[in-house]
Amino acid sequence: MTHHGPIIEVRGLSLAIGGKQILRDVSLAVHPGEYLSIVGPNGAGKTTLLRCLLRILRPSGGEVLVAGRPLESYSQRQLARVLSYVPQTIESGLPYTVSEMVMMGRYAYFRPLAPISKADRQIVCDTLERTGLVELAERPIATLSGGERQKVFIAAALAQQAQVLLLDEPTTFLDYRHQAEVCRLLVEVNRTLGSTIVAVTHDVNTAALHSRQIVALRQGEVAFDGAPQELMRPEVLARIYDSPLLMVTHPTANLPVIVPQ
């Protein structure tokens, strides 16, 4: 049975931790093939929202539907076929090679005690190629740079062949070159594979330049939900960030971007 409608639907989500309200009445819809960024100041609830989608945190109110079904009705294996996740900080001391790490993305499809199938190996090969990691395939994770490691985790998530890729601050600790490579990879995956991307980021410029839909949280509430062009207006941003921002027009994207004051 194919599901028509949003792939992820959040309805009236609230979450309090230790008496402090972190999310209040958050609602949003993500459609298949969308590239959605979640932005907002520190402490706005961005990562908390992602953790609710991953079932790491249980909301105190509201519900999350994935492909039309309640999130809690999925087994871990079923959910892994719909949602994949790239965490913010990536453990550098993992005792695996790049190709072993990417193969782990296939775990939702493994049959107990059966050897790894030819199809699984082929998917891993294709994924290493797509992410430009073929040369690094046999390298231990511990020997890679932060940018290379980030690409390995994205590759593992892609090998999972889930419909949605959830990312928490995918470019935070990377230099400009690796930031650009990761952004290019995500845009390409979204366009060519049709993967739905949901990325939490504090970098509003990157979000505006790459996503098609942006949700901004402010103090745990949805302060904006719409297209980048609508968000990148001084008065809209000032309301979200409680601060006037200086903007210029990007030289190639024809979109206003924020510049340091």
How are the secondary structure elements laid out?
Blueprint lengths: L7 E10 L2 E11 L4 E5 L6 H8 L7 E6 L2 E2 L5 H5 L2 E4 L11 H7 L13 H13 L15 H14 L4 E5 L7 H18 L2 E5 L3 H7 L2 E6 L2 E6 L1 H4 L2 H8 L4 E4 L6 E4 L2
Parallel strand pairs: 3-8, 3-9, 6-7, 7-8
Antiparallel strand pairs: 1-2, 1-4, 4-5, 9-10, 11-12
Q: How many strands, what sense, and barrel or not for the largest sheet?
A: 6 strands, mixed
Question: What low-confidence regions span 5 or more consecutive residues with pLDDT below 50?
Answer: none
SS-based structural class?
A: alpha/beta
Spell out the CATH superfamily of the domain at 1-76 and 197-261.
P-loop containing nucleotide triphosphate hydrolases
Q: Report the top-level CATH class of the domain at 1-76 and 197-261.
A: Alpha Beta
- Alpha-carbon distance between the two ends: 53 Å
Query: What is the architecture of the domain at 1-76 and 197-261 at the second tier of CATH?
Result: 3-Layer(aba) Sandwich
Mind telling me the C-alpha Rg? 19 Å
DSSP summary, beta strand count: 12
Beta percentage is 25-35%
The helix/strand series, from N terminus to C terminus, equals EEEHEEHEHHHEHEHEEHHEE
How much helix is in the residues? 25-40%
Report the mean per-residue pLDDT as an integer: 92
Fill in the CATH topology of the domain at 1-76 and 197-261: Rossmann fold
Total helices: the number is: 9
Shape: globular
**Which strand order spans the largest sheet, edge to edge or round the barrel?**
6-7-8-3-9-10
